[in-house]
Write a structure and sequence with these properties.
By secondary structure, chain A is mostly helical. Chain A is built from 12 helices and 2 strands. Classes of the chains: A mainly alpha, B mainly alpha, C alpha/beta.
Amino acid sequence: MGNWLVYILNGLYFASFLFLTSLGLSIILGVMGILNLAHGSLFALGAFVSAWLIGTLTGLPPGIAFLVALLAAMLVAGLMGILIETSIIRPMYTRALEYQLLITFGTLLVIEDLIKMIWGGTAYYASKPFTIMGNMHFLTNQYPVYFLFVIAVSFLAGIAIWLIMGKTRVGIMLRAISMDRDMARAMGIRIGRLNTLAFGMGAALAGLAGALIVPTTPALLGIGMEPLIIAFIVVVLGGLGSLKGALIGSLIVGEIRSFGIVLFPEVELPLLFTIAVLILVVKPEGLFGSK
Amino acid sequence: MEATNIIKRPKSYIYPAVFILLIVLPKVLPTYQLLLIQSGITFAIMCLGFNLLLRYTGLLSFGHGALFAAGAYSVAMMGKYLPSLYRVEILIPAAICVSILVSALFGFICVRHTRIFFSILALALSMVLYALLVKLYNFTGGSDGIRVPIPWMFGIAPTGVRRMAFLTGNYHYFLVCIFALATLVMSAIVNSPFGRALQSIRDNEVRAEMIGIRVRRYRWYAFIVSGIFTGIGGAMWSFVNGHVTPESAEWVFSGEIVYMTLLGGFTVFEGPIVGAVLFTYLKLYAVSLTQYWMLIIGATLIVIVRLLPDGITGAILKLFAAMKRERNKGAS
Amino acid sequence: MLKVSNLVKEFGRVRIINSATFQIGQSEIVSLVGPNGAGKTTLVNLISGHILPTSGKIEYLGKDVTFASPYKRIKMGMARNFQITNLFEGSTVLDNIRTCLLSAQEKIHKAFLPVSHYKDITTEAIEILNIFGLSEKDKLLPASLSEGDKKVLDTAMAFALKSRFLLLDEPTSGVATGDKFKVMDIIVAAIRKGKMSCLIVEHDMDIVSDYSDRVLVLSEGAILADGKPSDIMAQSSVKEILFGVR
């Protein structure tokens, strides 16, 4: 019994990363209609910034250092997102799908090599926050506090995004754009700036996810590839551009992974992709998508 | 439209000229250069297939690497498990059969969708194959892949033949013939009534349905034909490379396929061929120049998408068209 | 030719088509008129099979096609145009027609010989372009045609399917007022020549009275009146519905 609860919690932990990553992807897709292939690289950027800072800021108390690392990762990824949007993606909104995909693919290659230039090809270990938080007693098992921390952070981030999208002027305008771009423009919404904002916000979320992963996984080149692909699956499953879909999709994929690792460790990933494909065959528009 | 008409007449001598050039290449090029060209040619066969979907059917597949891998792995697996059948004349048809199976399955699922849904679904499916190739290492060799030995070819035994001698010898002529055949067949397909049907589906799905074209079925056929070409490309490439790894099924390689096609210019029939060969060179030089080759490739890609949306061939044709207009103006 | 009986279509709780019943005979050109929101396009979509009815029956050539797929109806010789022109924008005018002919003659699946090899198809396509007055524009892309020519091409494509029954949803919408009659002259002449039956949805009552054998008045989803154009125009209830005058 206790084991099963642990698996469910592990699923939630996986889902937290997926949620942060796919939420950003989904906002960008919903508002701008662009599938950002460079999203995984923003995740990687967050991971490297955070791992490097945790390793560098040894003078500060570990808690503060980690907090600084998280915020810095969000900031750097967010700024990078804004830079990408304004310099590379902005002229692409009216272009065909293949060009949009390809230009974000080019951006991905460039960012990956920029990371390599700055931090070199070596792995950055930053397990301090994980070891310091330690384990807690949970029923009959020991459970890492850090996992619960990640779940809490992504929960808070989800609430924050939900409040921004639901209650603020900016959020309402963003939703208006994602529903009908032309109508929003006709209503006098300044789409250009909001695009930049949405891209920055999505990028910052990816950066946060990347920053959160380094206490358990070293920052390596290409660390963002797998999260990107799985975030695609989440976004497609949940329905393109739907925030609720990103949440439910993350939970489903997170739990499938958690149980897949325990029950079918050999084919956990293929299993995940296969289930995703099957769901799409039955429900092409995704679980919460509208067509 | 105008631009493509200009190349029609020169085609009748450009095609044979390129063919003869390719045939004499082993006599004039150093081995290393020749292998590069060969690799480019196998990619070209693949990109011809890819472009049948992109240009003529309006579907952007971001998972074509899987179909390439299907062809390449059929050869490698036959070498590993059925060495008695390891003959080119059996391997290529076998690779075609596997490609048909894989692309029929992938296509069946993907063509229910269009636009970005299609792209992502193709990507997800290719990742299923990639993950299987990596995880089932007992069978597939995992991420180390499988070595591809020299095959029997038309009754000639590979014993004692060195790889370089094989590739620069008979295999080169075989590859060039397959490439020529692939080009001619694809050219026939896109100009045929079937090709016309695909283009009308691309232009206007609703109307195509209303004039009695079975849209989904035709998309599926296009996917399978595209898969066959891509699979043949993969099979031919496996001999040149001498080794297959799951990386060819990974989405980054699928991205490179899109890149090659757009680099050459997907609006021109021959564009993908030019793009594939050019990309092979570009990547090789970028890799040998610096460890930051992805930066070069990525930046080039961004520039091309921004400045040359019709790729190299599209730009050249436009230039010709402009020059012709200029000349006509001068004459009149 | 076509027999529609007690056709009903509901979207949710709203009844768009309310027990519509009518027939269309061989080589008859029938106009469908009615105020906005009367359900004209819905009725066309039901007949072409794009949407399925809630209840009722559609018979075509004596066969029940109520729930047949659009594809099956096309293969039985039913063709339609679209209110918003629906052309193959990437192909020339000639190729738009040729594609229709290839499809109608079951040659569209052939994948080896080039389209130009099928000489009879090209000849026939040129003939059709002649009938519709588009032969000068065969090499143009649809985007460079005038709105009227686009409409004509749209209809010519339906015509090329060798159909026996055409559904034309507002064949002159978007055409400049001065050109409407010219467009209709071309279309109707072609239909008469091909001895086809036709159901035309139309707003303009002048066009309706000039070109149709019979008029159906649709109001709130039901057929309110059915008869010769001159008789229909005389009925006061029809005038009230169409023009809002008593």
